[in-house]
Amino acid sequence: MEKWDVVVVGGGPGGSYAAKTAAEAGLKTVFFERGRKPGEKNSSGCGLGQRWWRDFPKLMEQLQELPSVRKIEMVVINLIDEHDRLRYRSGTTGSDLCANRWPHGMDGISIYRRDLDPFLADLAIAAGAELRNSTLISDVVMDDGRVTGVKTEKGEPIQAEVVIAADGAMSTMARKAGMRNRWGGGCTLVPQLDFGCNEEKMDDVIGNAEWVWFGPLYGTYQVNFRDGFHIGAGQWLRDDWDEKPLDMMKKVVGIPAFRAMCRAIEAKPREYQAHMLPWMKKPPKTYTGGMMLVGDAAGFPCPLEAEGIWHAVISGREAAQTAAWAISKGDTSERSLAEYERRWKASDLGKEHEFGEEFVNLWNSSIFDPKLMERQIQLLLEFSMLHPFSIVFDWGDAHMDCFNQHLGHLIELAPEFGDFGKTYIAPMARGIWPSNVKKMLLAVKPKIPALRRLSDDNYFKVIARLSRKLAPYLDPAAKQNGPLPRQSYGAGGR
Amino acid sequence: MKEIELDFFELVKRVDTDKMGDFISYDREKCNGCGLCALVCSFNIWAVKAGKAKLAVRYQELCVECGACWEVCEPEAIDFSYPAGGTGVVIEYG
Fold first, then answer.
1. Is the torsion defined by CA of A271, A274, A275, A281 positive or negative?
2. Element (DSSP H or E) covering residue B14
3. Does the beta carbon of B42 lie under 8 angstroms from any beta carbon of chain A?
4. B86 has a chain A CB within 8 A of its CB
5. In the predicted model, is pLDDT for residue A491 greater than 50?
6. pLDDT tens, residue by residue, A452-479
């Protein structure tokens, strides 16, 4: 029987990066791809954001050169109301703070998977891993309750010290090893429609930006590539799913402002795809005896924006390093591989998931709640009317009268969002750093006659005694630049 | 302004559909006729007839391999594995 140190199932970003890391650690590694080549079975938003510059600067330099890349330095938001009218469009490059955080600031790239996935697979091959294309792995081999290998679709067993399952949302490996079955509500379905466009016109009209089309009827992203773009819609696969994916796509392309954009950049429908994307409050168990799950198979996509490629790569790296560690000490049991969970939780990936529940609750109850979105658009429009650039365009009455009418309307609208704020926004307050709470308190200190003469330390002590909500932030033991632990602040959400 | 016409069949590229094998299996006994599979299907290959789900006979030529039918099937009447390696949907702009 064939025997390897590490068998990686899946040739997507998570699988390739795991294979690369394992091979670099000197492990005999093979990775399997069911498509004829990596990337052929994958669709996604595929925006590689700023953290790629932070974590993989050399790769990013190389990726820039691939043919489908469009640089991204801006996001443009289009709000479409329930009558399909464009009501709000705004874009941002982020502030100078974003630009100064990393050498490349806000820049990210959009890249098609047919460029990204083979590129990452080649890194693994160069490191010494063997890639087998057109091979479906359809089962695990178990011995005494632990995974000891995999089986190809033809029934050939392949033995492994460790299996790394990077086989996507439906993870056959996780299912066959009895780790889980369906996601049961934590998974989204994303139909995508790709358009080919005139590149120069895209440069002029779209620029280096991602677009989104949001509203009561839409939660659609538009990822822009060098000479094309795709839109993705979709929702959590739950009881309130109410529309066939093909109808969803037809509806989006019917938005007049969308059609106008298509006309301006000569966009022609080019490809239709659909994929599932786990968008979880909390990843399920990610390891068992002899096997670890990475990327979508583990439910890792970001709980806030559902991007999953960086998460796949990071988890692939952590899993392969754990495999090397476990193999070297001769123990790849479940207990030993629990180390993987400790490692990913301690990584930046784990940090993102600390707020998984709050982030997912927020999405569930805002963009994906049509009734709330209808009212939210009104609220946002009123907010925007108070902006000096907007108020100059409302000359229905004298400007100060217009301003006061908008302000009054905003004040009337706000209480409708009280419950929403209390249930979904307030729980995220534990994420505000104590150092920022202190900055705010110090800013108001000179305005409080009774307290302004106190030393800062004594002032914080008094506030902590007066307010139960603020006390945890002012606890001298609290981490200054980090969130409060969940238990010290009441967590809400459904 | 001109409508954007979508011919979804033309918009999906597939190879060797005759070699894909049976990658969706369906247990009529377990089906409760809820119709969720038909509602979420990314290519309308499921329908409900006489209180039971029905899979298109030549589903291999239509399915986009998303697996949503399996994910939503509460009574677990639908099982989804992948088509044989190197066959089925080919995504060029994913």
1. positive
2. strand B13-15
3. yes
4. yes
5. no
6. 999 999 999 999 999 999 999 999 999 9
This model of the complex carries an ipTM of: 0.97
Asked if B22 is an interface residue toward chain A (Cβ–Cβ < 8 A), one would say no
3-state DSSP assignment of residue B60: helix
pLDDT (0 to 100) of residue A493: 34
Hey, are the CB atoms on B91 and A273 less than 8 Å from each other? Answer: yes
In B, which residues are within 8 Å of A260 by CB distance?
Answer: 1
Tell if the CB–CB gap between B94 and A153 is shorter than 8 Å.
no
- Per CB-CB distance under 8 Å, the chain B contacts of A41 are 65, 89-91
Of A35, A241, A275, the CB nearest to B66: A275
Residue A494 reports pLDDT greater than 60: no
Closest-CA distance of chain B to residue A56, Å:
22
Residues of chain B positioned with their CB less than 8 A from the CB of A194: 93-94
Which tens digit of pLDDT belongs to each residue from B74-88? 999 999 999 999 999
Sites in chain B below the pLDDT cut of 70 = none
- B38 CB neighbours in chain A (<8 A) are 244
pLDDT (0 to 100) of residue A234: 83
Q: Is A14 exposed, middle or buried (0-12, 13-18, 19+ CB in 10 A)?
A: buried
Q: Which of A241, A275, A276 sits opposite B39 (nearest CB)?
A: A241
SS3 state of residue B67: coil
* Shortest CA gap B23–chain A (Å): 11
**pLDDT value at residue A368:** 75
**R_g (Cα) of chain B, nearest Å:** 14
Q: Quick one: average pLDDT of A395-412?
A: 92
| pLDDT, mean over chain A | 93
Whether residue B12 and residue A187 make contact (CB cut-off 8 A), yes or no, is no
Could you tell me which chain A residue has the CA closest to the CA of B43?
A246
| Nearest residue on chain B to A175, alpha-carbon basis | B81
What pTM was estimated for this model as a whole? 0.94
Residue in this structure with the two tokens 């190389």, named with its chain if needed: A62
Is residue A332 scored above 50 in pLDDT? yes
B25 touches chain A (CB under 8 A): no
Q: Is B9 on the interface with A (CB under 8 A)?
A: no
Rounded Cα gap, residues A197 and A372, in angstroms: 34
CB A237 within 8 A of CB A364: no
Q: Among residues B4, B17, B10, which one has the least CA distance to residue B58? A: B17
